[in-house]
Amino acid sequence: MDEQTQAPAEPTQSQPQSQQPLVPHRGTLILVLGILGIVCCFICGIVAWVMASGDLKEMAAGRMDRSGEGITKAGMICGIVGVVLAIIAIVVNLIIMLLGGGLALTTA
Description:
This protein is about 65% helix and about 0% strand. By secondary structure, it is mostly helical. It has one domain (about 25-105).
């Protein structure tokens, strides 16, 4: 028999032996939460940030499907932006209340 027609006796790298199935990614959920964190509720941004951080660690370890890595990163970035914008808004509102409250009394 010709050696080229025989099937390989041992599995190659593209054929894992007995690997456990990968956990499906939650990239879409994280992205939606990140966008909601920007638009309406910064708590959703915090949740997206925490979930994405954990999922990216799982993907790096090889326990989670890496096909959603980009969308998970995008959701994490949206969550961070939402939290930062909320913090800026809170600080600005506090400054306006502190300074603006005194101005309203003097102009009335």
